[in-house]
Design goal:
It is built from three helices and seven strands. By secondary structure, the protein is of the alpha/beta class. Strands 1-7-6-2-5-4-3 form a seven-stranded mixed β-sheet.
Amino acid sequence: MKKSILDESALLEEAEEFSRKLARARGQGATLVTLSGELGAGKTAFTKAVAKAFGVEETVNSPTFVLEKIYKLPEGRGFERLVHIDAYRLESGSDLAALGFDELMRESGNLVFFEWPEKVSAALPEPFARVSLEALPDGTHTISYA
């Protein structure tokens, strides 16, 4: 399914709808969502919007240089933590060990948003959702789910 995102309010609305689906997805182990798209496609913007929908009040920004950021979610939101990982600077799946990725994925309270999954795809488990984003020349974006 592909949708057009015309502005920030549409992005927030889409993130809220997506977060409701995620809250029902919690099972054994972490819930993994992969985010694909070119630089500037909106991967971090979508993560920020989902974090806001889950009640995160602190500033959510790209973990490109630190690779991973963890945000505590308010009680009653279906998950305990939002883990935001950016694999842009990683060279192989073995680089995930330094992040404690296997331990993160064992915790059912973790919701993991993973940017640039294609960089380490062989090391990733099957995600709950694959989100693809694209920035269009007119300033709008598209989002699709698989």
